[in-house]
Design brief:
The chain is of the alpha/beta class. It folds into 2 domains: 2-33, no CATH class; 57-206, Rossmann fold (3-Layer(aba) Sandwich), CATH 3.40.50. Helices cover 37% and strands 21% of the residues. It is built from 10 helices and 7 strands. It has helices at 2-16, 18-27, 29-33, 35-41, 57-63, 80-86, 99-105, 122-125, 145-152, 173-181, and strands at residues 72-76, 91-96, 113-117, 135-140, 156-165, 185-191, 200-206. It has a 7-stranded mixed sheet, with helices on both faces. Helix 9 packs parallel to helix 10 (173-181). One of its GO terms (molecular function) is methyltransferase activity. Keywords: Membrane, Methyltransferase, Transferase, Transmembrane, Transmembrane helix.
């Protein structure tokens, strides 16, 4: 098995050349983005080790300058994205089903965050309605994403947007159809993302006069 892996590595070197590989590692865009650090650490981080959402890089670059200090954010799923948002916006609320993960991530979170523990099911789906408030951004990046989208769209501010991550997956089409039926437009950001070598798509759904200025 080890011999097979070594042969595959050398096949890559032979195809694109050692010089090209070194350029990617030492001076390429992936180095600047922090991709190699994220791959080695298995965490979504930038080149300095700071947390990043596990979105496509193109979407991160688009989103960050549009976030405002007064924003309220809700996330289905928590992690480095929660830390990233919390460093910019007023407050982040997240829901998680994995109690072991909650115990790991909570000590790393700043004070302007709240993480709800909910088992997978209706209480998880409807967690966005728990605090009886509206959010500028709702991120659907956890379990039951179609049903979570249905619950979340009712909890957006008038200028609020919804982010559906990994939106290239065919089984999320019903979530897209729902957002379109509610009058939202769709903007896709496809490309590379931290940690893994395959591409993905992050999608933001928005209306006229939205908080991101799209």
């Amino acid at each position: 098995m080890i011999r097979v892996l070594k042969n595959k590595v050398w096949d890559v070197f032979n195809v694109i050349g050692i010089g090209a590989v070194l350029q990617l590692v030492l001076t390429g865009a992936l180095k600047d983005y922090g991709w190699f650090r994220s791959y080695n650490s298995r965490q979504s981080v930038d080149g300095d080790g700071n947390p990043l959402p596990w979105y496509t890089y193109s979407f991160i670059f688009f989103l960050k300058p549009r976030l405002k200090p007064h924003f309220e954010v809700f996330e289905y799923g928590s992690g480095n994205s929660t830390r990233w948002y919390a460093g910019i916006v007023k407050h982040v609320t997240a829901v998680e089903h994995d109690t072991n993960w909650i115990s790991l991530i909570t000590p790393k979170l700043p004070k302007n965050t709240t993480v709800m523990s909910r088992p997978v099911g209706e209480t998880y789906i409807n967690a966005v309605q728990t605090e009886n408030k509206f959010y500028h951004i709702v991120v659907v990046d956890g379990r039951n994403r179609v049903k979570c989208t249905t619950a979340a769209v009712e909890c957006l501010t008038e200028d609020g947007v919804l982010i559906l991550d990994n939106s290239e997956r065919e089984w999320y089409q019903k979530a897209k159809d729902l957002m379109h039926s509610k009058g939202f437009k769709q903007l896709d950001f496809r490309g590379a993302l931290p940690i893994i070598s395959s591409e993905s798509c992050s999608t933001v759904f928005y209306r006229e006069g939205n908080c991101l200025g799209i």
